[in-house]
Amino acid sequence: MNSRPDPCFDSAAKPLAVHLAQRRIAELTPAPHATEEAALADALNRILAADLVSPVNIPRHAAAAMDGYAIAAADLPAFGARAFTVSGRALAGHGVAAAISKGAAMRIMTGAAIPEGADTVVALEQVTEAADATVAITAGHAKGQNVRAAGEDLGAGALAIAAGARLLAPQLGVAAATGAGRLTVYKRPRIAILSTGDELREAGDGGGGGVFDSNRVLLGAMLRRLGATVVDRGIQPDDAARIRGAIAAAAADADAVVLSGGASGGDADLAVAAVTALGEVALWRIALRPGRPFAFGTVDAKPVFALPGNPVAVVTTFFTLVMPAVCKLMGEKKPRAPMAVNARLGMALRKKAGRMEVFRARLKTVDGMPQVAPTEQQGSGMLSSVHHADCFIVLGADAPAPAAGDWVTAVPFYGLL
Question: Tell me, which fold does domain 63-148 have in CATH?
Fold first, then answer.
């Protein structure tokens, strides 16, 4: 067992900057190795483990981009109009039609292969059809118009999707276009979650007093949204031996452990001591508001995150510190950066120098410009403030306290929470 590190348990120690904490967590979070095959229908939100190379051209052959008539550009009139004899039609999915002769046109449907001898498609609404099986086409058309070249989207042998990409709807569509029915993906990481505190009660338990545990519900939902498998370890009382045993069991059964409560350093804050006894605490206390009492360490080389007990601080520390690590555990090489919006601040904000501060807020448009204002309640225990918000205002450690009308960074919740 390790003794308590210094200065990790020194309440006077300067909190660590968020970017340094993120770097340290990334260093100690392993990348995945285990993979499996998944059908496209089951691959949503998974991480691709092997490059997907297209075995075919997409499209496979030169094809019409719209309904019309396929012709040779060399036959187009320089001025006026010209009559073309219609020689058959080409339909999508029916192979390449017979070649057309000089001075002829072929009726062609969107997606159909361009017949031999043709290189241009004139849209249906740009021709005049006659009863004698001819069409009149005027001057002014360009060679190659309305034609999708073979391999225009992806060429045979080209990289379609790189390993490490998150498979969302566009990526799955591309995979299907290459003909891939199954993909090699990383196995979902198992993330154990637990809450600590004598005061906690299970949601749905109507007996007695105390506080209903919202943190595990929050963490489970956010982890599932990322694509992880959640292992719920329940509530642990403020008992050093039981918390230590729960963390050890969770680390043995999962790829990472995320717990809330017990990171502040008080007499009843036992999580950091438990991680220290079982493994190593790599950092403790972050220059972040809300979320300062956050600890990170490893047990049996498994990342362990000790989040604050206040639910809003759970959300902000998950957003800033846990989410990037979970994405790495999943195998995502370049996690999507949260969308940021520059918006004018609707009211002045107080801010302490030297720490990142995150406010719950709402975005709206005023006179055609984005404007953001914090919700009325900003206490770290007021979870309803997250419910009534739709974004974070994120002020970096070096940012001054902003005045009303200043431009600030707003990060919408969409796709995050």
Answer: Molybdopterin biosynthesis moeA protein; domain 3 (2.170.190)
- The most distant pair of C-alpha atoms in the chain lies apart, rounded to whole Å, by 96
Query: What does the domain layout of the chain look like in residue ranges?
Result: 18-34+188-330, 36-58+153-186, 63-148, 341-412
Q: Summarize the confidence of residues 260-289 as an average pLDDT.
A: 87
Pairing of strands 341-345, 369-374: parallel
Q: What digits encode the pLDDT tens for the residues 251-262?
A: 999 999 999 987
pLDDT at 264 (0 to 100):
74
pLDDT value, residue 207: 65
Cα–Cα dist 186/362, whole Å:
36
| β-pair partners for 409 | 342, 394
pLDDT in tens, 167-197: 999 999 999 999 999 999 999 999 999 999 9
Peptide bond into 7 cis (omega under 30): yes
pTM, rounded to two decimals? 0.87
Which range (88-97, 230-239, 288-297, 365-374) has the least confidence? 88-97
The residues, any chain, with a CB within 8 Å of residue 167's CB and separated by 6 or more, are: 43, 44, 45, 46, 47, 48, 161, 175, 183, 185
Report the topology of domain 36-58+153-186: Molybdopterin biosynthesis moea protein, domain 2 (3.90.105)
Task: Tell me, rounded to whole angstroms, the distance of Cα 157 from its chain centroid.
Answer: 27
Range scoring the smallest mean pLDDT among 198-207, 259-268, 325-334: 259-268
Two structure tokens written together for 331: 């195998």
Give the relative orientation of helices 18-28 and 323-330 as an angle to the nearest 10 degrees.
20
Question: Distance between the two ends of the chain, CA-based, in angstroms?
Answer: 37
- Classify domain 18-34+188-330 at the CATH superfamily level: MoaB/Mog-like domain (3.40.980.10)
CATH topology of domain 341-412: Beta-clip (2.40.340)
The neighbour count for residue 138, using CB atoms within 10 Å, is 15
